[in-house]
Structure formats: structure tokens, C-alpha cells
Amino acid sequence: MLVSGRKSLLTTLLQAQKQPFQPHRHMRLVQFLAPHLAGPHLGLESGIAGGVIDLNAYDPTLPTTMTQFLEQGEATLSVARRALAAQLPVLPRSGVTFLAPVTRPDKVVCVGLNYVDHCKEQNVPVPKEPIIFSKFASSIVGPYDEILLPPESQEVDWEVELAVVIGKKGKHIQATDAMVHVAGFTVAHDVSARDWQVRRNGKQWLLGKTFDTFCPLGPALVTKDSVADPHNLKICCRVNGEVMQSSNTNQMVFKTEQLIAWVSRFVTLYPGDVILTGTPPGVGMFRKPAIFLKKGDEVQCEIEELGVIVNKVV
């Protein structure tokens, strides 16, 4: 379900991001729909708030889904790099619908209590091992789609997160080799029903984390070579324009390499898998008094160099 009022949403996005596009450095892969196309296409976002280059029009042999694109590794990435340098026609942003950069991955892995400042906010010790939980892939929606308030919960909360997208299959991956398995990074919103997370269902987190629409992703998969340092990025969340979370990914307890090494001890990681790396302080449940999302709210989750996702609560 898409957010109504695309013009106002586009205005919000353009105001939030005004960084210039550097064509030979930044590769921003997207999945999108357009009225003249049959089904989803892969594209390149031409700047953080720019239009879209249609990769499938440039090379019709390319897959039309991100997971299949990543599975083919360097062969497809090299085509995307050529397209980026070719100065191809750009579809206007107003004429396309952005999907999540990855849809229906094999798994969505999430990390709890992974920011030092978030641990301090809760007055809990910093974990000595990563705390792992999951969302179902059916919770994923696009960067500008609506978040549906479920009737089962009265305590829906926000959590901005850096997401890692896996590009190469692996098991028992060493931390020193972990970045070989990373395709890139994107912005995630780990929407959370706190009543179900911390009190219901035996206090297991899964149900509270995985309602439909509880994992907006996007706007683009920014390839790892396009990000100067994923562990030194400003990260923030705004609700109705008010800053609720503001931190830096340098506060992460376990960095990307450590998380990949840890998770791959237990499960095989596949191209397209998404790892949500935890959230900084400022979530609604720890405010005094607690604040939760309500109908009509607009949430903006933003990470430096990656972009901003904007989701209306309905």
C-alpha cells in the first residue's frame, strides 16, 4: 500500500537530501515500478534525490529482481557500472514508484542492543555477544509506503537502523573476510509493537517485530565501495518533523564484520539477505512519558550518504 500525496512526500524527500551526485563514485541500486513497464525493474538512482536509470532497458538480459542480480555477482555489477558511466536517460522521480531495494530475501536478521548509547538509555550492560532475532520477509515494504497500525497493538514504536545487504553466499565467515560478502547498505525502519515484544508471547520478540509493513527499506542499496565508512555515519529518526533519534553508527557495539562472522556461525547467508544492525537511543518506549506512533504520523529515517525513507502511519 503506497503513501497518498506523492507530491508532498517528494517535497519532503528533496528537502531532506540535497547532496550532489558523483557518477563515478556512487552506485545506488533500486527496484522500481513505472506505468509504462510490465512489472518491477532494476535501476540506478541518479543521486540521493534524483531520478532513475532503467538498467533493464540498458541491458534486457539483466535480472529484474535485486536478489537475482546479486546472485550473479561481478557479472551484473560490471553492467551496472557501465550504465552509470554511460549518461543514459533518467526517468523522473515523480514518474516511478520505489520498491524496497530487496524484496523477499531468504532472511531478515536483526540485532538488539547494538548501540552503546542505546544501552545507556536503558541502563543495561553492553552485550558481550550479539543479540539476534528476526523479522519475516513479509514485513518488508518500500521506502515511501505506509506503515499499517495493527489492531492487535497499542504500542507501535520507531527504530532507525543501518541495514547490511549480503551479496555473496557464505557460512562460517571470518571477520577478516566478511566485507567480501557485503553487497552494500541501506536505511531500515525496525517498526516494533512493544506490547508484543516485551510482555506478550512469552516475551519473545518475533511477533512484536514482524507485523506486515514493519520493515520499510530503502531508498537504494548503496554499494559498499560507495560508502566512505559505514561505521561513521550520522543516523537519525524524525516523527512529524521532530528529531527523536540522533546518533552515529560509530556507537555500534558489533560492527558489520563481527555481525556477519557471528550470524554465519549458525546459518548460511545468501545474496539478498538483510541484516538490521540495531538502533540508537530516542525510541518512544523509553521516553517519559512513553510516546507511540498514531494514525497520521510521518516517520523519516535518515542515514548519512544512504538517504532517507519517509513512511506515513495509517
From TrEMBL:
<dbReference type="Pfam" id="PF01557">
    <property type="entry name" value="FAA_hydrolase"/>
</dbReference>
<dbReference type="GO" id="GO:0050163">
    <property type="term" value="F:oxaloacetate tautomerase activity"/>
</dbReference>
<feature type="domain" description="Fumarylacetoacetase-like C-terminal">
    <location>
        <begin position="107"/>
        <end position="314"/>
    </location>
</feature>
<dbReference type="GO" id="GO:0016787">
    <property type="term" value="F:hydrolase activity"/>
</dbReference>
<keyword id="KW-0378">Hydrolase</keyword>
<comment type="similarity">
    <text>Belongs to the FAH family.</text>
</comment>
<dbReference type="GO" id="GO:0046872">
    <property type="term" value="F:metal ion binding"/>
</dbReference>
<protein>
    <submittedName>
        <fullName>Fumarylacetoacetate hydrolase domain-containing protein 2A</fullName>
    </submittedName>
</protein>
<dbReference type="InterPro" id="IPR011234">
    <property type="entry name" value="Fumarylacetoacetase-like_C"/>
</dbReference>
<keyword id="KW-0479">Metal-binding</keyword>
<dbReference type="InterPro" id="IPR036663">
    <property type="entry name" value="Fumarylacetoacetase_C_sf"/>
</dbReference>
<dbReference type="GO" id="GO:0006107">
    <property type="term" value="P:oxaloacetate metabolic process"/>
</dbReference>
<dbReference type="InterPro" id="IPR051121">
    <property type="entry name" value="FAH"/>
</dbReference>
